[in-house]
User: Fold this.
Amino acid sequence: MNRQFFDRSVHEVARDLIGCRLAIGPTAGMVVETEAYEASDPACHAYVGRTARNEVLFGPPGHAYVYLSYGIHSLLNFVTEPEGTASAVLIRALEPTEGIDLMRERRGQERIEALCSGPGKLAEALGIDLSLNGADLFQPPFELSEPAGEWATVDVVTGPRIGITKAADLPWRYSVSGSRYVSRPWPATVEKAA
DNA sequence: GCCAGGATCGTCT
DNA sequence: GACGATCCTGGCG
Assistant:
């Protein structure tokens, strides 16, 4: 994977991140759930214009945007689209594959399904904090690779995003169909993404 | 299984 | 001074 991957529509990137392997240091997992946040989107942090917090959203693609949610949880995003265009993909859930005991220790939870099934959870499991805000995704401790084997052909479903009040009806959440590791089950009706 | 409530703090009004 | 792109626990069926 190269930086070009992120220099595209945030929606394409959000869709294509599903099934990718994400490693941070000794911990890793497969991306099973994402959400897209584009510049013209009221739910996007950059919607209000450039501020100290959202600075990196306006920067070049392929960097991490990490911020603190509810004063407690760090949330990991990948900056997309050309420099000057503020958009990002929120990484919402992973299927843990490596460093699982370390994840258990960091999370204080035993069940594998409880380790990375939510944006705050996976950040804690992977040891992500605000110091990684602005970090280059193509430098350590990050390691990213495109879907291989079974992961290249998984079914992806879309639906409304979670936990937001503005523009909550837009179907910009993507996840692996039927995965036990997503943050929440889907409503009854669901669309299949291209 | 479902729901209500609390934790906790950087950012912007 | 209010508000979250959240998570966990405890209470109740």
Summary: Residues 11 and 146 of chain A are 16 Å apart (CA to CA). Residues 48, 51-53, 67-68, 70-72, 130 of chain A lie near DNA strand B (CB under 10 Å from a C1').
